[in-house]
């Protein structure tokens, strides 16, 4: 299901980095995110809810320009 909050996300397994682009256009990289968390997010009915509950405020991040 498309998300009303997240435009897209990509995962680099070698770096354990989750790159997220929000519908606002803001982009962030979340570091040391396990592949299992990303797979759960892919399978989640609501990507935004899953992100808020399991990723935001749980992993170190960098805001991209």
Q: Mean of residue pLDDT?
A: 95
Strand ordering within the main sheet? 1-2-3-4
Shape: globular
- Count of extended strands: 4
Number of helices: 2
The biggest sheet, with number of strands, parallel, antiparallel or mixed sense and barrel status, is: 4 strands, antiparallel
H-E order: EEEHHE
Strand portion: 25-35%
Q: Uncertain runs with pLDDT below 50, 5 residues or more?
A: none
Any idea what the radius of gyration is?
Answer: 11 Å
**Helix proportion:** 25-40%
Structure in words:
By secondary structure, the protein is of the alpha+beta class. It has one domain. Helices cover 26% and strands 34% of the residues. It has two helices and four strands, in the order E-E-E-H-H-E. Strands 1-2-3-4 form a four-stranded antiparallel β-sheet, with no helix packed on it. Helix 1 runs antiparallel to helix 2. The longest helix has 9 residues. The model has no long low-confidence stretch (mean pLDDT 95).
Short description:
The protein is of the alpha+beta class.
């Amino acid at each position: 299901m498309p998300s009303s909050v997240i435009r897209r996300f990509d995962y680099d397994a070698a770096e354990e980095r989750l790159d997220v682009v929000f519908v606002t256009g803001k982009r962030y990289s979340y570091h040391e995110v396990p592949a299992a968390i990303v797979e759960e997010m892919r399978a989640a009915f609501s990507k935004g809810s899953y992100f808020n509950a399991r990723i935001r405020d749980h992993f170190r991040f960098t805001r991209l320009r």
